[in-house]
Specification:
Layout lengths: L1 E2 L4 E6 L5 H12 L3 H4 L1 H11 L10 E6 L4 E8 L14 E8 L8 H15 L4 E7 L5 H7 L3 E9 L2 E9 L6
Parallel strand pairs: 5-6
Antiparallel strand pairs: 1-2, 2-3, 3-4, 4-5, 6-8, 7-8
Length: 174
């Protein structure tokens, strides 16, 4: 259990029983970006987010919960399984960090990100990468405070500039 302000919450691996709540939470969490990306791109993104639980086939879906509901979710992908396009295969990666709009400001996004860092270290990853869009005004500074550095511009996705961030976990041996 971790304390995130008013109540305690637990961080755990998602189960199939969480699928519906994960999908709903992701749509709700990203809905605020509809005006940033436009309605056509939002429709496309919403369709993907409504199936976010399917990402469990790529890695470990991790949830934060309290006694009553899911507060947040993130996908951790271990080294060797990243896409090799936006994130090098040998790195671990984070995708789809989402925190319920009702639960923001409690450190849940930071705790989920820290859990991914811990898992990447456990798995011996040399680095942990993620991609984020320009509209992520809260997430980007949080990642930077946690030690992530902007590594590359990735072009436009869903009508918004995206970039790759990396947290180096161990220096390459020369």
């Amino acid at each position: 259990m971790i304390s995130t302000g008013k109540e305690d919450c637990a961080i755990r691996r998602a189960t199939p029983l969480d699928s519906s709540a994960i999908n709903k939470l992701c749509v709700e969490a990203y809905h605020e970006f509809e005006s940033s990306i436009g309605s056509a791109d939002w429709q496309q993104l919403r369709d993907r987010l409504s199936r976010a639980s399917d990402l469990s086939s790529l890695g470990e879906l991790i949830v934060a919960e309290d006694a009553t509901l899911l507060l947040g979710v993130v996908l951790y992908i271990p080294p060797g399984k990243s896409d090799g396009v936006s994130i090098p295969c040998q790195w671990a990666s984070i995708r789809m960090l989402a925190v319920s709009p009702l639960c923001r400001g409690r450190g849940i996004g930071r705790e989920l990100t820290q859990e991914c860092i811990n898992r990447a270290r456990r798995d011996g990853a040399e680095a942990l990468g993620l991609t984020t869009g320009k509209m992520m005004k809260i997430a980007q500074p949080m990642y930077e405070r946690m030690g992530f550095k902007k590594d590359a511009e990735l072009g436009v996705r869903f009508g918004v500039k995206h970039a790759r961030y990396v947290l180096v976990l161990k220096q390459a041996v020369s």
